[in-house]
């Protein structure tokens, strides 16, 4: 279907809201994307007509729910082009998916002195679990710095891999601050040549670029449903089957076992082994509906639209005096300003204006931006700033909204400086 933005917008009930008498301008999809009516309806239908637990009951509702839940797994498998549905584990979010790997794989595969490589772009969700593992196991965390384009330095990776200690490279597919997409294929090939596995944090990338896990050849990949126009409370861990099969369960409880005695238990097969307790069923139904909804549109059209928005944003924001789109040299140079190859978001600072003050003023006018370190403190420290303001786009945004936002920034700047 052609990407007609007016028709897309009509499908998002929240976009009809006004805040303090002004239309909502939602430029915070990197934090969470809004849900189209189709997703809300699919979840409401399950809740009203089919609500039941899965893989437990024999009655009709239980059977329908089980089919819906497993269909959702197949929808995710196809969306990622995974080889098998068993390679798709439902979690409560991207953060939990990464923690699952750090706990289950990390505990059993890392020894003291082994290392995990991260990039300076990483979100705390892909930093803290590895630091916790370091505290528990005595493993190391080694860092890839970023170059002047914001790309992780491959020379750093090469140097770390040469130590022979690296067991995992855990890297984002798309920075939630700079909008930079690292060269995953090269990084994965380098890691594999050195005998290391690769985990991809696709929290941001999942809504902005096609992902084919077999083509990438990544070993693990994590994302959350809520950034993909789906509900909160559900995430996905993709893992190669041969790896997942060797990993112990993460959480213990119902449904993750084959048998239990007073002395011990044997775990269930994949994927149940990693899905202890009642899973997020309505949320899985919602995620499948979100994938189906998104797939009406081509990636080509989605990317062309979002690129146009970001180019427009960069060009307009650059005209604002004392506004600096974040770069990598600590002096806030503009990244790729001639040919912006950023996806989903960009971040900026405004001289003598704290991001929280700016976003509060804009927020009262119905303009939703995000201020802070965006859960990327190491990156902000590297850039020499405590915080920044992020503008992020989704399929439903329009250039007019970026205009409104840019004008509001200019007005706020004047107000705060007088
Ligand atoms: C790059 C990145 N990784 C991980 C996460 C964590 O996602 P969640 O909070 O949905 O678990 C986020 C969320 O903003 C993110 O942007």
Description:
The protein starts with a helix and ends with a helix. The protein contains 14 helices and 17 strands. Helix 2 runs antiparallel to helix 10, helix 3 packs across helix 10 and helix 11 packs parallel to helix 14. The protein has two domains: 146 residues, Aspartate Aminotransferase, domain 1; 254 residues, Aspartate Aminotransferase, domain 2, CATH 3.40.640.10. The site of pyridoxal-5'-phosphate has 12 residues, from helix 4.
Features of this protein?
single chain, 418 residues, alpha/beta, Aspartate Aminotransferase, domain 1, Aspartate Aminotransferase, domain 2, 4-stranded antiparallel beta sheet, 17 strands, 16% strand, binds pyridoxal-5'-phosphate
Care to give the gist of this entry?
This protein is of the alpha/beta class and 418 residues long. It has helices spanning 5-10, 37-50, 60-80, 94-109, 128-137, 154-162, 184-193, 213-216, 241-246, 281-294, 299-317, 355-364, 377-383, 399-417; strands at 18-19, 22-23, 25-26, 88-91, 115-119, 140-144, 166-172, 197-201, 220-224, 235-239, 257-260, 265-267, 323-325, 345-350, 367-368, 370-372, 388-392. The protein has 2 domains: 5-30 and 298-417, Aspartate Aminotransferase, domain 1 (Alpha-Beta Complex), CATH 3.90.1150; 41-294, Type I PLP-dependent aspartate aminotransferase-like (Major domain) (Aspartate Aminotransferase, domain 2, 3-Layer(aba) Sandwich).
């Amino acid at each position: 279907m052609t990407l007609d933005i007016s028709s897309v917008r009509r499908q998002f009930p929240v976009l009809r809201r006004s805040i303090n008498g002004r239309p909502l301008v939602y430029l915070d999809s990197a934090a969470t994307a809004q849900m189209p009516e189709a997703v809300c309806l699919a979840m409401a239908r399950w809740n009203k007509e089919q609500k039941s637990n899965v893989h437990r009951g024999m009655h009709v509702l239980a059977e329908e729910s089980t089919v819906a839940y497993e269909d959702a797994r197949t929808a995710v498998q196809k969306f990622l082009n995974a080889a098998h549905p068993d390679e798709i584990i439902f979690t409560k979010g991207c953060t939990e998916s990464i923690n699952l790997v750090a706990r289950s794989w990390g505990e059993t595969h890392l020894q003291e002195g082994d290392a995990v490589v991260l990039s300076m772009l990483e979100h705390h969700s892909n930093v803290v679990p590895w630091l916790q593992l370091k505290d528990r196991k005595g493993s190391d965390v080694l860092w890839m710095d970023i170059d002047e384009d914001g790309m992780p330095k491959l020379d750093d990776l090469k140097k770390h891999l040469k130590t022979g200690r690296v067991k995992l490279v855990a890297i984002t597919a798309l920075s939630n601050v700079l909008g930079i997409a690292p060269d995953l294929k090269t990084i994965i090939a380098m890691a594999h040549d050195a005998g290391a596995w690769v985990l991809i944090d696709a929290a941001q990338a999942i809504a902005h670029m096609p992902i084919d896990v077999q083509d990438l050849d990544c070993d693990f990949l994590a994302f959350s449903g809520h950034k993909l126009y789906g509900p909160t409370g559900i995430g996905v861990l993709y893992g190669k089957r041969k790896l997942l099969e060797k990993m112990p369960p993460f959480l213990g409880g119902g449904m993750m076992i084959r048998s239990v005695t007073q002395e011990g238990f044997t775990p269930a097969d994949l994927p149940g082994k990693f899905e202890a307790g009642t899973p997020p069923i309505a949320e899985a139904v919602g995620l499948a509906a979100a994938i189906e909804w998104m797939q009406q549109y081509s990636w080509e059209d989605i990317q062309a639209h979002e690129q146009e928005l970001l180019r427009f944003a960069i060009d307009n924001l650059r005209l604002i005096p004392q506004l600096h789109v974040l770069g990598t040299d600590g002096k806030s140079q503009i990244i790729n300003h001639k040919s912006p190859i950023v996806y989903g978001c960009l971040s900026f600072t405004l001289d003598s204006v704290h991001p929280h003050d700016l976003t509060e003023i804009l927020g009262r006018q119905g303009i939703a931006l995000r201020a802070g370190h965006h859960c990327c403190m190491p990156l902000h420290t590297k850039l020499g700033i405590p915080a920044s303001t992020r503008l992020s786009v989704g399929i439903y945004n329009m250039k007019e909204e970026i205009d409104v936002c840019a004008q509001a920034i200019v007005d706020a700047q004047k107000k705060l400086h007088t």
